[in-house]
Design brief:
Blueprint: H1 3-7, E1 25-27, E2 37-40, H2 53-58, E3 63-66, E4 76-78, H3 82-93, E5 102-107, H4 112-125, E6 130-133, E7 138-140, E8 143-145, H5 154-166, E9 171-175, H6 178-183, E10 193-196, H7 204-207, H8 210-222, E11 235-239, H9 244-251, E12 255-260, E13 267-275, E14 278-285, E15 288-294, H10 299-314, H11 319-328, E16 337-338, E17 346-350, H12 355-368, E18 373-377, H13 388-398, E19 401-404, H14 414-422, E20 431-432, H15 436-446, E21 452-456, E22 463-466, E23 469-472, H16 475-485
Helix pairs in contact: 3-5, 4-10, 4-11, 8-9, 10-11, 12-13, 13-14, 15-16
Length: about 475
Amino acid sequence: MKLQKLLAYLHPILPFNGEDPEITSIENDNRKVQKGSLFICIKGYTVDGHNFAESAVNNGAVAIIAERPLDLDVPVIVVNDTTRVMAVLADAFYGQPTKKLRLIGITGTNGKTTTSHLIEKIFADTGKKTGLIGTMYTKIADNTIETKNTTPESLTLQKTFQQMVDADVDLAVMEVSSHALDLGRVHGCDYDIAVFTNLTQDHLDYHKTMEEYKRSKGLLFAQLGNTFDLNKPKFAVLNADDPATEMYSRSTAAHVVTYGIDQKADLKAENIHMTPKGTKFDLVIDGAIYPVQMQLIGKFSVYNVLASITAALVSGIGINDIIHSIEAVEGVAGRFELVHSGQDFTVIVDYAHTPDSLENVLKTIQHFAKKKIFVIVGCGGDRDRTKRPLMAQIACHLATNPIFTSDNPRSEDPLAILKEMEAGVQGDTYQVIPDRKEAIYTAVNQAAAGDVILIAGKGHETYQTIGTVVHDFDDRLVAREAIEER
């Protein structure tokens, strides 16, 4: 695409009258620049792309987008906000790919990963080609790619969607983080359905207040558009039991469809019955009752399933096909995942890393635990510090044997993180074992028949970040080793 044709998508007040080279790629990393690239200078948290513009030109960049004039031998287009411009240009360069497939976005504090996987499975079971973008990985049809962020930046995102279109993907489902919404990473994404799971405390290191966190999540629904199309309707799928739904419902012009357990909703779960092997409930839709017997456990799982059923239903999939898919799901990696190696006690690995998710998982365990409940829990470094004492309180109040340990301490002192956790539980009984492997081994060696061990916080992750070093570490593998060595 020619530079000037690409710049036309910015609708400049004054047209750019400089050179008009052919743009073969768009990059914001100078190391990826090749001959014909357009390089966009992005100011990051630690580095400023403007400092690498000359290097980009040396690597073959034929034009630069920047926020200030640069003395270079190629056209430099100065804009007010390169991050915002990058989203526009990426969408244009890759042919506005989200207009060519069905796109479902899921936001909320907890449940995004499970809900996205459930939706993806329902559509795949109907024979659709699917794509998925989220915390665990990116999937393009049958190809799986590792990811760094829950929601990639706009340039990576639009390139991924273009690859999905090329692979004849019918539907893409993606997790949409509050950071991505606030930073404009999903600008240009033409969502057909936006799903809200829940809103509880998290990421206050970034958003500062719960009101700002709620506002950021709400951008997904406000950005669904302001028109109605019979053939391509837009839907906001909202959790009727969460207070934030009132605001999100008022924020969108899309059709609102609700799901819930406790409050009035379009889709409702009643007569919920949980066992260690699964959950049964009655799905009520406009007076009609559909029995559901799934292998997933817990009230939080019922919410995730309700959200998934609603998104599939408004997409035109038959309710019986949806339920059949849901009932066949065995689980999602690192989400209430059982680790079994012949032991007479239960070991569960879960991604619970917020106060609400930890409380939900522990309350679910209380439904079937016969004896002691061990919980191994820590808090990540360089993240929301205010939730640390809250996590400790929940662990002490809902488990019989809490063990505080390291999560991903990153640049922080692990012992300092543990001290902030302990500040919330003075006078309570707990163990502090900074080494996560030792903590897991301790719980396994102390557990007796009928006990339950919850290893919380990291779930599917296969690493632990200490300082600047990323170590191989998988809670599931370590737990299995501890059981087998016991």
